Fold each of these.
Amino acid sequence: MRGPIPAGLVIDHLCRNRGCVNPGHLEPVTQQTNVLRGVGIAARRARQTHCVHGHPFTTSNTYVAPGGNRRCRTCRRAQSRRRGVSCAPA
């Protein structure tokens, strides 16, 4: 890659060496793509398709917490029932 970085994109180091500046090893991608290609905790969690109990992270079954973390609605309901808390709206 040579030239300016397109608006809205970041540079991904394809060789996974952050110090590498070989233009052939650099690719402009979205921040989301860059994170998903990574090996850190954020990348691993972003690639998860199911919660630890096997429930899918679908639009209807996923709660996004204020901090941005995804939570399984099925597991949250079960946890609330165990604690004696009602999830029904008032």
Note: The chain has two domains: 1-47, 48-83.
Amino acid sequence: MSNKIPNLFIVGVAKAGTTVLANYLSQHPDIFMSKVKEPDFFSNREINEAKLYYKTKPLNNEGKYLSLFKQVSHEKWIGEASVSYFFYKACAERIKLYSPESKIILIVRHPIDRAYSHYLMDKRLGFVKADFEDIVKKPASHEKHYDQYIQQGFYSQKIEEYQNQFGENLLILPWQGNLELSLKKIFHFLNIAPIEVTEVEANKSMLPKNDFLQRIYSNGMIRKGIGKVLPVQLIQNIKSKAFVKQDVKLSDEMHENLEKIYHADIKKTQELVGFTLKSNFK
């Protein structure tokens, strides 16, 4: 086994800025972040069994997984970001067994905002045609989408699993908190000197301008390939020219319905993380 084993994991949640965070951390001289986002090595079994509609393949070969970190030289922290590690229960234990001294970073976003943002992303990629409200009201007719959007928003049990496995080696932060303060907390958590980072624009809710662009953009392998060779900011500039702004409205009625679905779990989650989850879609 290579001694270049990852010891830093951004595990979620999905649609909470993990890609941007990974980019910020990669700017630190003491941190090496995999250029491949979402290798999903520790969740490959569940992803393959779920037969999801995303056109990506998780790494199930240890050699290929460790090759993501072959360029590590002096860095103290070797990291990757896979949000599926939070959703699938067994991942926390697998990571702990594989890299016992590793540290975990979890960004938590209000589950309603996370769910709708996830839906808008899939709409942008051409992975869903149904209306969001229809998926919420008829889960049996949209099982895979319901799992991706709604089920992923029940955080408390998953947070407890990571707390049990990693204790003080788990850092939980709110989505869209103060960037400077969040990075300061992360650098302190990792026991490395703070640095100033070059700000990266977050993914906007945009739709491809035509079907051809959508077919290309919906291919996960193509997106990962582009991500390997082009800087994040250049990708954002290209998207701003090839995409149009997406409607992000959520009805008051649907928001209220989702509040009822998540109420108990939000309450427990807030007790576990020590901060309030705020929705921006009200």
Note: Residues 91 and 127 are 25 Å apart (CA to CA).
Amino acid sequence: SKDQFRAPTAQDMKILIQTCLMPLAIKTQTDSFKFVHELKQEMHADLKFVESLEKEIDELKSDKAEFSDMYDEILQYCVSKDVMCSYFQSLSDLDALAE
């Protein structure tokens, strides 16, 4: 019948809270504090890990820039040597023609 499935009253809610929810909240309160504490510790450890990765990335970027500069210097050196070799080869060719 209809009365069997009536909406809960304020008194029903009060009884539910006092008999079920409050004891459950008290029982799990310590565990929830522990959980939050452990979660904060884990988040702190994760943050430290991310910071260490960021530092490593910065170091790698610095190394990359340094190696890029070294590569440019070596390339310029090789190009200048190649130009010199071509120049000397041209002089040698001119000497051969002059003889």
Note: The chain has a mean pLDDT of 85.
Amino acid sequence: MFEPTEGLYIGITTVPISIVSYIIAFIALSLILSRSEDGKQFVDKMVSVLLIGILTYKFWFIIEQPSILFKQPLEILMYSGGAYAWEATILLCGAWLSYQIWKEAPSNRWRLIQRILFAFIIVRVSYSLLIKDYGSPSSGWGWRLDDQTYLPTNLFLLVGYLLLLLSFYVLRKKLSFNKDQISFWLIGISIIELVVRGFKPQLDHLWMNIGTLDILYIVTLLIGVYFLLFRQPDPIHKT
């Protein structure tokens, strides 16, 4: 597994290992979904999301330091990221996905949302397989850094998401409608992320031990529970 700051050198340019994990996730998603026509259409949408994400993260530092274009242009190939690169990447990709959902026919929107959540899970699996994530200090087994052992929280995420996918495979006949699947994914994702965050030191406390991401996942969990309690069939499509 790789450190979060590592990258792959391709000629004189560097590709962050996080971007590599997203490309692998995209390839896996393409293989899984390309067997159906609407699956191929979804993969085409994800191509644009992947390109927006890669280009935004790779060249965001130019937005923060535009003078580099004139003073050290070759460094454009060597560096990527920046102080707010991930935030900008998530914002732009999220905005593009929201637009894709908005322009879909109402009867297809739930299917698209369901597949976006499935794509998120594949991305998390790929990321957790490749990149170490350091949790709280541990006296036992874990990742070593500066003579200290830390809980391997990426492995916790990996196990959690693999169990979620296995559970979906077992229950797939009962989750016949897209809204049922959306509820299942939202609840599963929220529980996994909240549990694993409990093994990590929180740096963004808003109240007691609750941080910004905790609030996001709690809201996501409540939305999933709402869909579960007030479940309705899809307008047209079954999956």
Note: The chain has nine helices and seven strands.
